[in-house]
Structures are given as structure tokens and as C-alpha cells.
Amino acid sequence: MIDLNLLRENPDAIKASQRARGADEALVDQAAAADVAYRAALREFEGLRAEQNAFGKTVATAPKEQKQALVAQAQEMAAGVKAADAAAGEAEKALNELLWQIENVVIEGIPAGGEDDYVVLKHVGNKPEFNFEVKDHQVLGESLDIIDIQRGVKISGSRFYFLKGWGARLELALMNLALDKAAAAGFTALITPTLVKPEIMAGTGFLGAHADEIYYLPADDLYLTGTSEVALAGYHRDEIIDGLGEGTHRYAGWSTCYRREAGSYGKDVGGILRVHQFNKLEMFVYTLPELAEAEHERLLAWQEAMLQACELHYRVIDTAAGDLGSSAARKFDAEAWVPSQQTFRELTSTSNCTTFQARRLNIRYRREDGKTAPAATLNGTLATTRWLVAILETHQQADGSVRIPEALRPYLGGQDYIRPKA
RNA sequence: GGAGAAUUCGCCUAGUGGCCUAUGGCGCACGCUUGGAAAGCGUGUUGGGUGCAAGCCCUCAUGGGUUCGAAUCCCAUAUUCUCCGCCA
């Protein structure tokens, strides 16, 4: 949720942000008007309530013979108060409905435009060269007997798979490497629930335009999360976080993630690039608003260290305003080179949600002056199942084997290559 | 799944329709006292909203209701605990 003070003092800044996103600019004026109407209705109610409270004391202390007349008078008053209360409630609801539709104010200077208007910040590493015909990860996965798509489809339908043998172990190795790196950087490990209540899903901003991406269990009124970000953001919901002034709170959440991939029919159909279920280690940070941008750079640096440990060629892009999620004020994606596709594919994403998400979830900290204020939240991927695609393809050898990056070997009993069965 | 009990300010707790504008303790903060500390004494200590301000309004798990007036009475929901049943 946007800052009400900003709406009152500088609505043009919010309009500019909505414009950059290609979102509805008119919402801003509508919300500002609803805010004025709400405050007027609230003052009306509070004035009447104050009168009623004062009168109630008169009734309570009045002598018996006067009481009946006073009660009759109070009855009339009560009706007026009730109506004013209802009107204020309606006005507040109308305001909130508008406020919740306005997306986070983007950070000044980020690229304008849509999905294709990102700015490439850097390329790292060298494009892998092959003196043989490269195989895609699906072919590699089958020939090495480490990814079983067919049986995944048999039991669960399209976009499901089994990781098998070294494939399963490689994913766990990747997650463990990421977790060790996160722990070394001061993150607290968390294994999170993947079923969450509607208010948590809504608070994190996932029930907006992309609600059809999410699995929902009507019998229990629970949502399956597409990222542990949801649980990690909900973790401190309705809390005033202790000690945030003394230090940023960093969590590394591991969970399985579920995505319906509605509307992506025919896109990335082969292999495990786009699947309904995968695992992810997610960084999630609670910090002071003024530290958020520096923390965002740090999250990106940790992601890059992980990509480099996996010996991948990648680029970093600064996502354009129109391609940001509603909660994000800025987003960096790191995309790894996928040899079979001769293109870069997203492996990590890190978003600075400033105070937007915290305001929706009522997550605050105590400032030096003793007042409470919404915290800033940020998130970023540290490892996912999708990384196997880039790792397998990048490190494939002429003989059909795959070289395991050095950093992962300690987690695989020292294994250096995954070789096809003889 | 069934029966019962509970939910009050960080923690414990008083409170059974109007002097509740919520009690007391612990903890915490500040001050006095002290050579320094402890003890003792004093003061403060839930959040939110609105208003230039004084102030006012809301907040006793949540949402409804009864009433002139609700922490208190009624209904629903959530959570926790105990017992029983079922399952692993």
C-alpha cells in the first residue's frame, strides 16, 4: 500500500509512477478524493460519538426521576451516531479499495516502458563455446538418467517431472551451497509453510492481476505459494520488529513453490525450465527504509556470487517499470546463458518493495524517537531448480557427460562428473 | 470428528452493565538515593486514527448483535489448552 501522506502531499509523484508502469493514473485522484471524504465522515462520527459519551455520563449520574426523560433523549442520539458510524465505515472501505489498487511508487531513474525495455547493467563471464553439437538440458537429463519428464507427466500431468539420482542430488547440493553462503552472510535459515491464508497472499501483493497464477484450495480457503517470499513476508505480520534499528533482519527461506503457469501454454514446454512445482532458496530482508537501496545492491551481489560459484555466464538487467510486480519499486534480474536456446534466461530476481508490502502487512519498527513506522522489505532468489538447466547445458562435455562446478562438489561427495550410463 | 475450558497493555493478573478515562505485579526506561551497586522511593511504559493545537475518537482475540450505555450479556468465527475418538 502506498503512503497516505505522499498521496496527500505529492499525488503527482504517484501519478508519474503509475504512468511509468502503464497503470491507471486516474486512481490517484479518485483515492485522494476518497481520502478527503473519509476524513470528513470520520470527523462527523467522532464529534457525535463524543457528544454521546458525554451524555451517557449525565444519564448515569442523574437522579432516578430524571433518568427516563434523559434515556429517551439518548435513544435519538444513538440512532444518529449509528448512521454516522456506518457512513464513516463505508467511506473507509471505499478509500481502501482504491488504495489497494495503486501500485508501489517506482524508484526514480529506473527504465520506463514494458517487458522489453529493460536496461542491461552488465555481462559477467564468457559465453561458453562448444566444438560439438550442444544438447538441451532435457536431452542431457534423459541420457544421464537424472531427469524423468515422462513419469512426471504420467503421475501429475504436463510440467511435472522427477529429479533422479545425481539430478536429485545436484539440486540438493545447489540448495545447500546457497544456504551455506546465505548463513555466512548472516541470514537465518527458515523452512516455510507453503499453504497460506488469503490475507497473507493479498498482503504480499500476489492476489492482484496475476491471481490466476496461484493454486487455491477452496475446501480449506488456503493458497499454495509460488515463492517462500509470501511466508517470509507474513512472518512478521502485525509485529513491531524488535531491534530493526540496530540491524537488518535477513532470512533465507527454503520451500517448494507452486505455479499454475496459466496462459503460458506452448511456452517452454520441454524440460524443467517452466514447471508447476520446483524448489527455491529465497533471501528475504527486513530493513530501515533509508537502507533499502543499499541492501538491494547487496542482495544482487550475493546472487552474483552464487552464479559465479556455479561458473555460469550471465547478465544483469534493470527491469522496466511496466514489468514490475505491484509491490516492487525496482527489480534486478540475473539471466544465465542457456546454450541450447542461444539466449539468456532468468535465474534470479531481486525486488526492493520499499515500505509498500510492510504497510499492507502491518510490519513496523520503532524509530529512535519512539514512534513506529513501516519497515522496508526486499527479496531475492538465491537458487532454484531452474538453475539445473543452465548448469547442465553450460558444463556439458563432448562425450555427453556434465562437469560439476568445483563449488558444488563438496556437497556431492566429491563427484566431479555426471556420466551417461555405459 | 466429539466434549469442556480459556483468550485483558512485552509477560503474569484484577475486573459479572454506568466513578473502567481498565487494577496490581514482573520486566523495561528515566530520576532521586549511593563512593559505586543492590535495595528502596518517585515518574513513565498497548497500539491506531483525526485535528494547527488543546483535545477528541477507536482499541479488553476477531466480526456481528442487545442496550441510552458493553471488557462485562447474546450469536458466529479464530486460536490455545485438556479429555475422548480416529489416523500416522
Instruction: Please give the order of strands in the largest beta sheet.
Output: 1-11-12-13-16-10-9-4
Q: What count of domains describes the coordinates?
A: 2
* Overall shape: elongated
- Just name the CATH architecture of the largest domain: 2-Layer Sandwich
Structural class: alpha+beta
Which percent bin holds the helix content?
A: 25-40%
Strand content: 15-25%
| CATH C-level name of the largest domain | Alpha Beta
Largest sheet: 8 strands, mixed
CATH superfamily of the largest domain: Bira Bifunctional Protein, Domain 2
Supply the number of helical segments: 12
Poorly predicted regions are: none
**Average pLDDT figure:** 91
Number of strands: 18
Element-by-element helix/strand order? HHHHEHEHEHEEHEEHEEEHEEEHEEEHEE
